[in-house]
Specification:
422 residues, alpha+beta, 2 domains, 18-stranded antiparallel sheet, 8 helices, 18 strands, globular
Amino acid sequence: MKNKRKEIINRTQLILILLALVGCMLTGNKLFSQNELKGDTKSIHPDSIIDNLTPLEYAFMMHEETSWLLKLNSTVNFGYGRGVGMIKIGAEKRISPSFTVDADFTYSSYGFTTVILGGSIEGRWYYRLNKRIRNNKLARSMSDNYFALGVSQAQTRVKYNENNESFDYTSVYAKWGLQRRFLKYGHADFGLRMNYVFGTTESNSPSFAISTFVDLGLSYTKDKLPLNHDKLCAILNCYKSHKFIIKSNLTGLFSLSLSDQINSISLTPHLAFEYKVGKTPFSINAEIQGGLSYTEYDRTMTSSYYAPGYDAGTGYIRNWQANMALEARYYYNLKRRMLNGKTGNSLSANYIGGGAAFIYNEPPYSYEQSFDPSYYVVAGWQRLIGKHLYFDVQLGLEYRDKTAYDYSRIEPRIKIALGYKF
């Protein structure tokens, strides 16, 4: 009981310290607000702002003064050969020239067996914005790099066979992020996040985690200026054709977690190849994603989380897995996008597709080496941005030929890819 009370007191103190830090940041910002506002752009003609922007900065909406932003994002992380899909609804409000407050609600699912409900609030400091405005006459947008401090709360509900369990977690975190709007309604937010997490049960000791994060989706605010299509052509590849592309998804690339019970590190590199079939709107896409992880754990505290046969004591796990997929795609609106000057005869359009996926698992995440096939149908949206960026979003259903741990055979298939195009 005393330990529980002490844990609550420590958690409260950390949250109060975080809020005090945010308050100090905001107070300090007000002291310098007069100097900041000297670089404000409201008195500058919009055309002069646009002339100073590169085509990529223009596509990122850096010419628009933004005081608020609504967001609908999704992200997917992969673990143990299964996707964890998350939907995030949020809003961001500017409270001073360089500072904003961002709040969101999240719903996550691990197949049909686990649901995570959560929310967070954070203060953001766009640390480059004032200097960039003074030097380049940019608008005070929300498309820039930032540091953030925040607090989040989450509840995990697990259904395993006929058992139901619930766990609550509180997290204090810091982030370095790059938020970018894309044209009128696109949105991406990615970077590095450090968490200090508290569990509500004695078996969940406080832990420290560091990982990459990617949110990709839609955003909305009240813009004042129409977009100039000619200035965007270098970014949209209006007249460029692609016969073959190599791409790498950088979402969820790296994670590190440290606690009294479990220390783990993981790396999930990804590589994909897509080949366009002649001049038709069809293509073949093949990809592979590796999962490399190393975990040290205290079996006396966590033995119930692992497969039967593990004895109490100190142990470690080295695991690797491979997710492979081969799919056919039909870009159904490619012709219309070409006629509208939004792309060449390329691989930058909406599509429907279907294919087969294969998951290779090493023990201990399977009791023996396994090579599990599945089959899926999806609707997708892929865009090639400039020379080296791309995003690819898929929503659909997947049928697993066989499953471990009594998982459902039919599950949602969600893929969020944001990365580098070679």
